[in-house]
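[job 4471] stage=fold_predict status=RUNNING
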Amino acid sequence: MILKSEPSAIAGFLEDTSNLKNGWTPGVFFPETPEEVASLLASAVAEGRRYTVAGNGTGTTGARIPFGDYVIAMQKLDRISEVEVLSDEKALIRVQPGALLQEVQAKAAAAGWFYPPDPTEKTCFIGSTIANNSTGSRSLKYGPTRNHVQALKIALPQGDLLEIERGQYFADAEGRFTLDLPIAGRLSFQRPGYAMPLTSKHNAGYWSTPGMDLIDLFIGSEGTLGVIVEATLLLRPAPEQVIACLAWFQSEDELLDFVRQARAGSGGVSPRALELFDRRALEFLRQSYPEIATETAGAIYFEEETTAESEDTCLEAWLALMERCGSPVEKSWAALDSEGLQKLRDFRHKLPVLVNEWLSRQSESKVSTDMALPDERFAELFRLYRDACDREGFTYIIFGHIGNAHLHLNILPRNREEFDRAKTLYRQLVSEVLAMGGTLSAEHGIGKLKSEYLVQMYGRDGIMEMVRVKKAFDPYLVLNIGNMIPKDYFE
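[job 4471] inference complete, writing structure tokens
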């Protein structure tokens, strides 16, 4: 196993896309087997080491940035197995955590299968997507990563390698789990008692529901309970065809009505994605797509899976819905083949690139949200963000997964005074969204940047319940300290 400590070798592990500064580490380990990961953890106490697990640097919450801990880098654990077909409707693929999401999806596709989770950044590690219960546009139809994980192998903080399959361990009537492990011995702990938000996308704190499956505790736990060293993922048959379209709207009311009807399946539509671009987002995109009409109030990108037999009926249903909601059908951008679909996806992914280019010319970082409300309250979330930013006079954009009532607000400060006001507004928005039954994070997780707000979501008692679960697995506090749970709760 390689250990690197030269400044040039470790510099890349002190950053991600969060803009969190001042991280440092004495060295980075590069294990090549699950057993080597377990060995590092087993010897941590004796050698006086703590560890931070590093994904591929695509995260937005600073989770992989160490502050004095050693780093465990996962990129050498990148094996992807062959697809194992179980039936016409189900297949499995085993992967190691350092495999890239795009390579897992490509291998599944080459065998005629489909792995639905689709976070925007395709170069993320598959293990990180499990640790963060990642979602994306297709979560509207398929749900989060949690729905597609069949089994995990996890290196636990005392050195055990725990293999668990979905359906193997459940919380008892009192919410308690009991495990007997070769090294750690008997672990007995109770799931957190807090209530989960009634949102369709949620990645804030440990998962906890009555009678829950143990595997779901690890999914979304951000590496604080153990290191995922292998996963078995569920695959679906690849859809025969996918149609996509960018529909333009002259008013926000018409746009929101379109989303409402599309979510309800009006006229027989069945979207697998419903994505919003508000007027200000389109102004950014117009830099690369000058053909975007200047009078447009916003746009909705949608996808639906079809077959050759049903394609015409599907298109007619969508066109009829667009007409009912005032969208000029003749101006829409439609994709009926893989080439057209890729062009529309490129349009979707161009927005963050343009925003980052704009920010590079400014002196301040953006202030962004990852919150969600219960699905039926999507319009309330949009209006909450819009009205608050208009009131403050900010430069901002709103975009994202409106079908799941999960919208990204990016406030783009032009100076330090605006940045400070934007942070104040962010805290106010957190309070309002939580009061409305929402979640602090729908997909990006908590990491180090948002741990203080997790206390606001669950209260001190809720955080202490998470601490008790954490200490059951990690009594000597060697793994990912500072991620998700504020460090002072361990003192």
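[job 4471] summary: The chain is about 30% helix and 20% strand.
[job 4471] exit 0
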